[in-house]
Specification:
Elements lengths: L13 H15 L5 H11 L3 E2 H10 L7 H15 L3 E2 L10 H23 L5 H11 L2 H18 L4 H25 L3 H33 L2 H14 L20 H4 L10 H14 L12 E3 L2 E3 L1 H10 L3 E6 L4 E4 L24 H16 L4 E8 L2 E11 L5 E10 L1 H4 L25 H7 L2 H9 L9 H7 L5 H8 L3 H19 L2
Length: 513
């Protein structure tokens, strides 16, 4: 049995692992029926830990078991080992990322019970819309798991979750989306019939996480790594729960974030060494920085400090990402215009592991065409329930034409797509800070003009807290009017408008406008 990187982080009985692997291989080869395999497992083992099961899952790739085969057979494999598969119920402190996932799972389980009860009750569309608004928050749970937890597991040699579990996540997401469409189209009977599938798939993914993913993560990942993960979790948000308290030392390990992005980095650079190293790199490429010119860099056309470069990226109305010539994600712009969730965990990760299984083939096709010089750009556009997103991939080449990676640009072009004719004169009516708000005003443009309104709404009413969820707000912000928001919060729309107007005026006076 060949060693794999994951082994160095675990204390395993390799003789026992060989027995587990042999049974799994016989199941995949159809040499044993599921019933025969289960009986053999129960005779052979008293208990199998989650990390032993996960190591066997990872090892199967070495024996030619493809990701596609794992996806198709995973439920059967888990069922074969279910009687002996155990995990310790760790008492984790609040704020620990795994504890947060567990709290979200508890909240989702409670929501599923409400959905199950609703299927037997009288059908009230508004009640179902509210239930599904909450159920769709599971996408935030998935986004944090995929962008925060999976990258750390990959660095430990355990990449099967990002290659296999992502597919199960997508099945859950798609089942909820399809059922929600039936609800919106008033296809009540079809919608109710779909609940059996939705309930099964959500409970199934939560069980896979609880039985294998979380216990294995606790064995592979250190507390320092969890503390760093916790600091990136807030950027994506949380599912059905309030933001958890901090975990670990908030100031710890910030200095080695750059090294963490490089899988080959063994020792984090000190701040002084990092600056000296950066200076040497800049000089090798004809770019200089010195105290006399305020630390400015000689970029290709002009001079900019690193502070100004970061400010420019932060204020660009587009979402940029850069993948280098080795398919490693090196950068994404820190902008409020993120179309999809991003977190620092993506840096240093192979781009193929940053996409669901169904998209990897397309990503690889683009990279191969760019690398071979057959293409220089690829574009896509998505209609996401009222939001129209434009995506452009551009090949990055140096002055000699050598392939240096891919620049990805995403932009919400809903407003641009609706423009027509010409506007040659200055007209600030759309963005005028004095423009009145009314019952039919949509919340997205209001928050764009007054970013503080989102936090203010959450402070007014606990039912408005979901507006702080970046994924849900991306959809709701385009369609939810103040009348709709007031109704959802049980408030009079006139009172809500009055309170918002007072807060806007108070902030304006603070600024001295």
């Amino acid at each position: 049995m060949d060693d794999i990187p994951m082994k160095q982080h675990l204390d395993l009985d390799m003789e026992k692992m060989a027995q587990i692997l042999e049974i799994k291989r016989k199941v995949f080869r159809k040499e044993l029926s599921l019933e025969e395999a289960r009986e053999l497992v129960n005779r052979t083992f008293d208990r199998i830990t989650a990390e032993e099961f996960a190591y066997g899952e990872q090892q199967m790739l070495e024996y030619g078991i493809t990701d596609e085969a794992m996806i198709e057979e995973m439920d059967d494999i888990i069922d074969v080992f279910r009687d002996v598969l155990v995990h310790d119920e760790s008492q984790l402190p609040e704020g620990h990322p795994i504890r947060t996932y567990q709290r979200e799972a508890d909240a989702l389980q409670a929501l599923l019970e409400r959905i199950e009860a609703a299927t037997a009750d009288r059908f009230v569309k508004n009640e179902w819309l509210e239930l599904y608004d909450r159920l769709q928050e599971i996408n935030v749970h998935f986004a944090r798991k995929q962008n925060q937890l999976f990258p750390v597991l990959e660095r430990k040699g355990f990449d099967r979750p990002s290659k296999v579990m992502w597919t199960f996540d997508n099945r859950v997401r798609d089942s909820i989306r399809d059922a929600h469409r039936l609800l919106e189209r008033d296809e009540d009977e079809e919608f109710l019939a779909a609940q059996e599938t939705v309930l099964f798939l959500v409970r199934d993914i939560l069980e896979k996480e609880r039985e294998v993913l979380y216990p294995t993560s606790l064995k592979l990942i250190t507390n320092d790594e969890f503390a760093k993960m916790r600091r990136g979790d807030d950027e994506i948000g949380y599912c059905l729960i309030d933001p958890p308290p901090p975990f670990g030392d908030p100031a710890a390990n910030d200095g080695d974030d750059a090294a963490a992005g490089d899988p080959a980095a063994d020792t984090p650079l000190s701040p002084t060494a990092l600056i000296e190293d950066l200076q040497a790199v800049l000089q090798r490429h004809g770019m200089t920085t010195n105290k006399e010119d305020g630390g400015e860099l000689d970029v290709s056309t002009g001079k900019l400090t690193l502070d100004r470069i970061n400010l420019l990226f932060k204020h660009m109305p587009v979402d940029l990402s850069y993948v280098d010539e080795n398919d490693i994600v090196r950068f994404y712009s820190d902008t409020k215009h993120h179309v999809f969730p991003r977190s620092p965990g993506v840096i240093g990760r192979e781009v193929q592991n940053c996409h669901p299984k169904g998209s990897v083939e397309t990503v690889q096709e683009i990279i191969n065409a760019f690398r071979a010089g057959r293409r220089d750009r690829a574009e896509f556009w998505l209609d996401m329930g009222g939001t129209f997103v434009y995506i452009l991939y551009t090949a990055v080449r140096d002055e000699n034409g050598t392939y240096r990676g891919v620049l990805e640009m995403m932009q919400d072009v809903t407003h641009i797509r609706g423009l027509s004719g010409s506007q040659r004169l200055l007209n600030w009516s759309e963005g005028d800070t004095d423009a009145p708000i009314g019952p039919d005003s949509v919340i997205g443009p209001i928050v764009e003009r007054y970013p503080f309104i989102r936090d203010y709404l959450a402070s007014l009413n606990s039912k408005f807290k979901k507006l702080k969820n970046p994924i849900l707000f991306k959809t709701m912000g385009r369609i939810a009017t103040l009348s709709m928001i007031a109704e959802r919060g049980g408030m009079e729309v006139g009172k809500l408008i009055e309170l918002l107007s007072q807060e806007i005026e108070r902030r304006r006076q603070e600024r001295g406008d």
